[in-house]
Design brief:
Elements (H helix, E strand, L loop, with lengths): L1 H46 L7 E7 L4 E3 L4 E10 L4 E4 L4 E4 L9 E4 L2 E4 L7 E5 L23 E4 L5 E3 L1 E4 L13 E4 L4 E3 L2 E3 L6 E5 L5 E2 L3 E2 L2 E3 L3 E7 L3 E2 L1 E3 L2 E3 L8 E6 L6 E3 L2 E3 L3 E6 L4 E3 L2 E3 L3 E6 L5 E3 L2 E3 L4 E5 L7 E3 L2
Parallel strand pairs: 1-3, 2-4, 3-5, 3-6, 4-7, 5-8, 6-9, 8-11, 9-12, 10-13, 11-14, 12-15, 13-17, 14-18, 15-19, 16-20, 17-21, 18-22, 19-23, 21-24, 22-25, 23-26, 24-27, 25-28, 26-29, 27-30, 28-31, 29-32, 30-33
The chain binds calcium ion (2 copies).
One calcium ion binds next to loops.
Length: 342
């Protein structure tokens, strides 16, 4: 009887133990299942092109004043247009990625209204390629690395815009109308100040401005441009006087084409001041204009300063060294340049 009781007790204990072991196993199994599900969600998401971060997808015409907030990745999936009288505000720290397409017509942000970027020096606004995994979370682990020209540009048609404290990378693809430039002013001259540009396919900054009467336009200054074959391109009809200062540009080391700064027909009294250009084919190129060019530095280009069809531009106090062909080159046999103290 006593033994029987003991046996029953032992049997009960064993049963309890077995049940517990089963429970532990089941718990462990369900943990594994959960883990597998989590992994599938994560990697499945990545494999099937779903971003791992909270994302808002944007395209088309913005019909009312809108704010893009820093807590979400903004994925541009089609051209975005800000019409006149509409303001798009972008909070400091917001990351905007333009979806890369392999076709020839890549994505643009067209600005006829106001793009109110609220970046600061410590917390800029980012514009980059969907293939750029270095910022804003991974969109797709399986795609190739980002490349210059993954997207096209931010195109301003309104000179009241102020583009400041932004980081802009991997854009500048060339469209059929030749409006390339990661940031472009078309028939207007916006303020472009204190930005960082890198890996553009065509110019980092391009402005084409043909005003109907002489104007002095906002300064383009304090920008850093790295790893771009073309830096800043400014084309006018002789009536826009520019002030380009404190920009620091570094090219790709290309020895047969490209420029740091290209100025065509800019207005009387234009000033090119304290800019530095290095590792370009032509450091600063002047076509049909006569600006005051002073205290700039041209290092390690093929040509430092390159001049054609320009009468008496003034080149004073510029530093030029390590330019493999000429520090200052005047292509014209009839036009003179006023060069001293360089
Ligand atoms: Ca396009
Ligand atoms: Ca990627």
């Amino acid at each position: 009887m006593g033994n029987k009781n003991l046996t029953t007790k032992n049997q009960k204990l064993t049963t309890v133990r077995l049940r517990r072991t089963k429970e532990v196993k089941m718990q462990s199994k369900s943990f594994k299942t959960q883990l597998i599900i989590i992994m599938l969600v994560i990697f499945g998401g990545v494999l099937f092109g779903k971003p791992l971060v909270d994302t808002v997808r944007v395209s088309g015409i913005i019909t009312h004043d809108t704010t893009w907030t820093a807590n979400k990745l903004v994925l541009v999936v089609g051209d975005v247009t800000i019409p006149a009288n509409i303001t798009l505000t972008i909070q400091a720290g917001t990351v905007i990625k333009f979806t890369y397409y392999s076709g020839s017509d890549r994505l643009n942000l067209y600005v006829s209204g106001i793009l109110n970027v609220q970046g600061t020096a410590a917390n800029p606004v980012y514009f980059t390629s969907s293939r750029d995994d270095s910022i804003g979370g991974v969109f797709d682990l399986t795609d190739a690395n980002p490349a210059p020209g993954d997207w096209e540009n931010i195109m301003f048609y309104n000179g009241n815009n102020v583009f400041r404290h932004c980081v802009v990378k991997y854009g500048g693809d060339y469209d059929a109308s030749g409006n390339a430039g990661m940031v472009t002013g078309w028939d207007c001259s916006p303020t472009i100040d204190s930005n960082y540009f890198a890996y553009s396919s065509y110019p980092a900054v391009k402005v084409r401005y043909f005003p109907s009467s002489p104007v002095t336009v906002p300064k383009i200054r304090n920008n850093i441009i790295n790893n771009c074959p073309y830096g800043i391109c400014y084309v006018s009809n002789g009536l826009a006087s520019i002030d380009l200062r404190n920009n620091r540009l570094t090219g790709t080391g290309n020895t047969s084409w490209g420029y740091g700064i290209y100025l065509e027909n800019v207005g009387t009294g234009s000033l090119i001041y304290c800019d530095s250009v290095s590792r370009f084919y032509r450091g600063i190129e002047f076509v049909n204009c006569s600006p005051m060019v002073s205290y700039n530095t041209a290092l390690s280009n093929v040509f430092g300063l390159y001049c054609h069809s320009s009468t008496d531009p003034i080149f004073h106090h510029n530093g030029m060294s390590g330019n493999s062909r000429y520090g200052l080159f005047n292509e014209s046999t009839t036009d003179t340049v006023n060069a001293r103290y360089n």
